[in-house]
Amino acid sequence: MFARIAIAALALTSLAAAPVGLPTAEANAGYTPPALASACQGKDGWADPAPPAHIYGNTWYVGTCGITALLVTTAQGHVLIDAGVPEAAPLVAANIEKLGFSLRDVRWIVGSHEHFDHAGGIPELKRRTGARLAGIAPWAKVIASGQPDKRDPQYALLIQHPIERTAIDRIIPSGGKLALGDVTLTATATPAHSPGSTSWTWQACEAAGCRTITYADSISTISTDGYLFSKHRDRVAAVRTGLDRVARLDCGILITPHPSASDLFERMTTGLKAQPSACAAYAKAAGVRFTTRLAAEQVTTAAEEAAKTAAKQ
Q: Residue 233: which domain range?
């Protein structure tokens, strides 16, 4: 079944939909970046409630203090990106409605990566909105099965937090597009953090001009205790590929799944600006941390081998 979906959906086209009602500016004038930053000051819990806020043009923050969820709006319906932990689903839904948007007008849900802190709320939000799910194959496989990818460095932890199985409607190849109304989102596989890591880019326009919104996925290379990247050459190669692709993204207004990873709230209070070099800097810093980790693993492995040799003598 999963394979048939993948073959049938190599390209995405616009989903025909009747025009939807969009709220007036007055309806959500109170949901500002400063209000979001103030509400989340000193808080970064995954389920800590946060008010929604306008980011730029068609893009809105509807997540929690610790986990990003974005609503991309059009007159033909909306796209929700990420959903947080299961406990955050009602908070995300409430934020969408606070802005004056109808949950039933959310046509698609997509995601950054397949871990429970970002995808755990997807099943409930799919039920509340009736939206369809789309994503790249490794992400979609985990969402559809409810089981983490055994290649994931965090597998031993993730298996303790399975995601509720949810049917996938479309498979998008890396570089593929999801079009809805006047917005086209491009998916780029960036498998540094997990096998299904995906970064998304789209255009947002307002009176000041059009900007690229760059939702770059997490690129930290963390793992459960005892996991050694140096013993998994395929994962090291995937990390390098992911970092390289993030560095080369069409970089505009950078947003990350954990807002703190890109100082999102602080930047929002002073006005988000396009920063073409931000994605390269984001990837470079993660690359330095990964190189440091690999070096530390080599030292640890050498010490263990020395100890084994000494014990045999």
A: 18-305
